[in-house]
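Whether sequence alone determines local backbone shape is best considered at the level of individual chains. When preparing material for the folding task, we compiled for one chain both its residues and its backbone structure tokens. The sequence in question and its structure tokens are set out directly beneath this paragraph.
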Amino acid sequence: MAKLTRETKDGIYSLMLTPYFEDRSIDYKTYEEYTEWQVSQGVAHLFAVCGSSEMTLLTLEERLKLAELTVKHKGNTTVVATANLEATKEENLEEIKKMEQTGVDGIVLTTKGLGDDEETLVSYIKELASSTELPVFMYEFPGFQPHLISGKAYGELTKDGLIWGIKDTTCRLDMIKDKIDNKNDSTIIQANMPYLFDSYVAGARGVMATPTSCGGAFFQRFHEAFVSGDMALAEQRYNEIILLDNAIDSGFMASAKELIRLQGVEGFNWYTRGSHDLSGARLRSIKSFHDWCVANGLMK
């Protein structure tokens, strides 16, 4: 069984989508099948209860059950999950305890809209992170704005090893590098695809990005090529990721779900709890991309 350690914390954290029935209740059976499919992609980690899971549209009970099922089917991966979505700090502390009980390997904390008050943010994160013995990662979740944290404030949280890494969503290379310069023993985990290759060159060593939800193998191939030192192959793998990213960009969660269905998780329809929809033309476009990937050995 894999273990989340300082030595294994780098790499690909595939985001977990939430499958629904037509009435938008959760299809837990398909979720279990999907988790096993994600494991088969060869990634090292799974990120349950994330933005791509529509976590703010899920109840606490739903979030805990999804985390528990991810752990149940995680195979040789590790599982992290967001644990500070409730309204108050006191509720967040209780939420962390409940998330620990699901068996996850690590806790993820959002910046909770405190990006403009870094002193309060650092104090808040320190208190929550100190309440658990599990590894703790941060997440600049755009759903709670202002959400970005400076390299200086991040360095304050990593200097004593309290925070193991961060999902950076700045989408700016200068701000990515700012965190890299202050990362200490943590991992800078990327969410932005245009700067993925450049951020790895600068020192990032992980990915938590929307296309991992339906194409983890693309990212695993890139990560392995880069850390092996084969820059030509790494750049080729990066270009394949850009194609994937562009293919699902329109109506992301619904598009990614359709691509998962085409890859063999047949019960996975494209329903979301948001306003997403897929036209006949969009469905045809996704199928064309899938067929091209199969023909070129990028998907099964």
About this structure: The chain has one domain: 11-229. DSSP finds eleven helices and eight strands in the chain. The chain has a mean pLDDT of 97. The first helix runs from residue 28 to 40.
